[in-house]
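name: query_chain
kind: protein
chains: 1
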Amino acid sequence: MFNKKSLLVLSIAFAVILAGTGTAIAADHTEVVNATDSFLKDVHKQGFYTISPQEVNTQRKVRPNLFLLDVRTPSEVENGKIPGATAVRLSDLAQNLDKLPDNKDATMYVYCKAGTRGAYAVAVLHTLGYTEAYNMSGGFLAWKDAGYPVE
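structure:
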């Protein structure tokens, strides 16, 4: 599906995202390639690591400690977010790893405005070892369109 050149480009893209505005990456090239390869092998089996807004709404009602990550910009978040979500702009993710769960097996639902940045964030989170990170399909727009609560 992906050749070595594509994997290298993808790995470098992840490294750039993780590096943010100058944060050093502890993993060497081999670790990044291996993590990326692992993610790509499982992505189809996991439905591209997506979850519907309906399922997120159901899960947040029955799992009070569910971690919701909003990767939109601060100005987008000012217009509302899912109650209880932690807001960390995608480009600031590497500088805010302390805001993420310590348990890398914790379930984490990620969203952005419409789904693209959330997908990037999920790829980065899986590369960092988070095994249960999922992107909410349709993002915050789909959440609002469904009439779910906003704070």
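note: The domain at 41-145 is CATH 3.40.250.10 (Oxidized Rhodanese; domain 1).
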